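Lecture notes, unit on protein representations.

Consider one protein chain, 183 amino acids long.
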Amino acid sequence: MKIINTAHFLITIVVLLLLGYLIFQQKQTKRIAVVNAQVVLEKYDGFKEAQDLYETETKEMNEIFEKQKKLYESKSNELKIISERLSNNERKVKEGELEILKAKIVQLGKSIEEKAKTKEEDLLQGVYNKVNDFVERYAKANDLDLIEGTTASGNIMYASDAINITNDIINGLNKEYVEGVKE
């Protein structure tokens, strides 16, 4: 009887140690997932709206530029037509006015480029902030230790579908975009 109790005790100890080891290993195992960052941006409604807003604003700026460019071209053509009837002084005045207009148009073009670049950076940064915030909250809510972003340039060469959470991220982002963040 004593041998059976000792064997029973040893088996219980071994089973407990094995369970403890398995629990320890599970705690030590890092949970990893991947997200296709390009697909998230392409399918995230917030990014689409930011893109539309950017295109609308740059279109308006480009229309202003095109109007000024056409005005310059019109005045340039007008000067070519009437230049023979103008005195040297009148022609030089008109040419000077044309050069001033040309310089203003060049400056306007540079200004538009700078504004468009700044607007794009601001809109993208806002989108990136929202995506990163969501991904961080998603990782914490799903007990993930690491979420890697894949890109077309290949910083991750392969990931199984089992750890690919791209669609979960897109669906969650779009839901939050419509409904807002639920605290």
